[in-house]
């Protein structure tokens, strides 16, 4: 699957052939077909693993934070989201750009997982608004903006740049709190 990911990231789904993937994996074409029925199944596998991994990361980031602390929950979600997009850039780029290439049940599964991921952000922001911690009148739009802000990181961030994944994640967490009009009730 790693070879397929590299090829999809470099050439796109339609530009990558099964021969390209086999060459990248350094195995024969028959070896690829022994494990996968075709390129569509490979794309579905790559994208399912990616969305499952990032969703597991974001869910774990808020697991120990009580629901009455949406400010901390949102910051944790954003940190996990951004860090994933800084260290798994190829996965993130393919996940964002090739979803339109998915077909059938594979597409339905990836879309359902993506919707669950979005719902985690939306419900956190809505809860914060209900509790008076966030002032945004647009929780759903704020969630989508935050998610897309994180996705874009995979297109420009460089690990050898001037900020670490953790440092960037902290900045994006603060930007996200600003976006939702977070109020620090401890003051």
Automatic annotation (TrEMBL):
DNA-binding annotation, residue ranges on this chain: 17-36
PROSITE patterns, sorted: HTH_TETR_1, HTH_TETR_2
Claim: DNA-binding is one of the keywords in the record: yes
Keywords, sorted A to Z: DNA-binding
Signal peptide: none
Single annotated GO MF: transcription cis-regulatory region binding
Coiled-coil stretches: none
Any Pfam family hit: TetR_C_24
Domain HTH tetR-type: 1-54
Organism domain of life: Bacteria
The protein, known as: HTH tetR-type domain-containing protein
Classification lineage: Bacteria, Bacillati, Actinomycetota, Actinomycetes, Micrococcales
């Amino acid at each position: 699957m790693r070879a397929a990911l590299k090829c999809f990231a470099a050439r796109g789904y339609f530009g990558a052939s099964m021969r390209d993937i086999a060459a990248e994996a350094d195995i024969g074409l028959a070896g690829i077909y022994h494990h996968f029925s075709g390129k569509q199944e490979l794309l579905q596998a790559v994208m399912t693993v990616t969305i499952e991994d990032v969703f597991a990361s974001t869910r774990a980031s808020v697991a120990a934070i009580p629901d009455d602390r949406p400010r901390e929950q949102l910051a944790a979600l954003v940190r996990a989201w951004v860090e994933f997009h800084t260290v798994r850039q190829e996965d993130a780029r393919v996940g964002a750009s090739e979803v339109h290439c998915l077909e059938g049940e594979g597409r339905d599964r990836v879309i359902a997982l993506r919707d669950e991921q979005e719902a985690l952000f939306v419900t956190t922001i809505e809860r914060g608004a209900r509790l008076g911690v966030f002032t945004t009148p647009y929780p759903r739009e704020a969630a989508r903006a935050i998610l897309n802000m994180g996705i874009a990181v995979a297109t420009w961030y460089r690990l050898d740049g001037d900020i670490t994944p953790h440092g960037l994640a902290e900045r994006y967490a603060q930007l996200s709190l600003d976006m939702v009009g977070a109020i620090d009730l401890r003051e």
